[in-house]
Amino acid sequence: MKENDKTIARLIRAPYINREYSWLNFNLRVLDQAMDLTNPLLERAKFLSIFKSNLDEFTMVRLGSLENSNINEPDERENKTELTASEQIESLLMLYPELYRKADHVFNFLNTELYHKGINIIKGKDLSVKQREKCLEYFNSYMLARISPLVLDQKHPLIRFWNLRTYMVLLLERNGREMFGVVSLSPSIERIYQIPGGKKKHLILAEELLYTFGDLAFPGYKVKSKALMRVTRNADFEANMEEADIDYNFDFSKFIKTKVEERTNLSPVRVEINSSESTIINYIAKQIKIKKNHIFTSESYFDFKFLFLLKDFLEKEKAEELLYKNFTPYFDPALKENSICEYVKKKDIFLSYPYDSMDVLIKLLNEAAEAKDVVSIKITIYRLTDHSRVIEPLLKAAENGKDVTALMELCARFDEENNLYYANRLRDAGCTVFYGLGDYKVHSKIVSITKVNGRKISYITHIGTGNYNESTSRQYTDLNIITANQEIGEDGARFFRNLAIQNLENDYKRLLVAPKGLKSALIAEIEKETEKKEEGLIRAKFNSLTDKDMIDKLIEASKAGVKIELVIRGICCLLPKIESVTENISVTSIVGRFLEHSRIYSFGRGEDQRLYISSADLMTRNTSRRIEIACPILDQEVKEKINSLLSLILSDNVKARRLSSDGKYYKIENITESIDSQDRCLKEKRSNI
């Protein structure tokens, strides 16, 4: 058995799969798209970049979290595969070298194709004499003054390697004495330099220029060996309310700001290096106190974000041929031409991003900001885009004397600073801003608009599966409803009151709200289908499945004969198709042009069907440690649209991969017509425009 096969065997304990291994499997499905010839070339290049960025974040957050657990709770075992944090770290790190080999292989494959399309990404060692002269001139005139060389000795202690910044480390000699030199590649230096001359676009990266000519920063020294390297630091921190109360005078925003600033200085969890030179590797390992099994060699580049920039070096028409065809999200003329507030009185509004436009929601917020009968607007905010159009109507509503409340989640990882900025803007405008409830992260997506006519109070409620973010609304598949249903409206208003007074009790008529009511309600729905045995049906679509209680309930239902069809994009800790255990469960993952992000939970058939959309995945963090919402779909027309969408997704045989009982994902054999569910949705919306 190969070493990696032994490692994988440790990470699977049927019917369970280790969470972290399952995530690495998901990221390999992302990498698959970089080799999928049905995708345009520059889009395939982007998938390689996303794969590497995903791995960076996984290393910072998930490996970082395991490192923390190994320090704080070394004997605790993960509840599905019974591995300690140390055992998980060791096993996962053994899988990393193969990930780097695959990424390097994919880049070389793409680079060959790019060459034939007129782009030549060149290494320093492959420069021609003339190209080398031009690069040297550029380095001397532009880069040399912007780098900071340092010789490390007793008077120059080791510098602090910043998280995810590229450095060159050199073994130097002068007067018979060896020492080390370090040069940091400033982030202000443009990543790509186009070498003048030739029909093709000859491009070289800044780190290659540093590696090729960086010796010049150390005149008088002999360079014996050198290497580029990059450190990845632990980015997982706990945002504990008690700590904030004690140390930050009850100001959670100041606490988060400090934690974000500390992130770049946390302990190292990985080193990447472009050389196998043992002297330099040993020196780095010793100086930053990292074990050698955390050091990995990359033959191409540490990150591939520069691939997103390649279109700028091509003529517009040529670049467009190598990218996805642009599309305009659909804005129903009936909603564009009429008042949203009036329209929703007659029927619920259903929006499916990115195929439908988020402008519908923006229009609703603008109407509410100006409407005389609207007295309050309340919203949960998890992630916003820069220059968000969601914020402006909230500011306008406050200016118009309406009660505006924003529940701002400051612990949205890597978006903390952006959320702090918007929280301050809203507060300065007179809006009420608070940061959630105790140590529970608020992940719900809800807008509650209250209207008063005389003594009659009515509501318009928006509930979605994704963030109020214009950028991701064009990249992620998410579902939304806007409803004037009174019971849902009352639940929405009650939700904001409860969070304002830190009340977690489950006193809702229609909404399922975590952490108290969502999990128990979904388990009850599974149990109801389990009682039906072979007549039972569960269909669901979400991003991750890790909650063991939910997994075990699904296994019980499968054993009873219930048909269970799951579409899980990312992590799945349940092993399907095990005879007599999970044989009635199918698990499909779709990775395509858009990030599959919607959450749908369906139980039963026909008139007995109970259908929900939700902000929550079936992860322990979502069901037990977050404020989440699932909303029932009551409008029959909307229910039919979601059922049709779910059936389409389950029939995908182009971008879909099916999880097998061996823990691997396989491409679905196409024996009839090819069905790309995302492409079908796009074509359907285009036909309406």
Automatic annotation (TrEMBL):
Domain of life: Bacteria
Keyword Isomerase: no
Post-translational modification: An intermediate of this reaction is the autophosphorylated ppk in which a phosphate is covalently linked to a histidine residue through a N-P bond.
GO molecular function term, any single one: polyphosphate kinase activity
Keyword Nucleotide-binding in annotation: yes
Ranges of residues in domain Polyphosphate kinase middle: 130-308
Domain Polyphosphate kinase C-terminal: 340-501, 511-678
UniProt name for this protein: Polyphosphate kinase
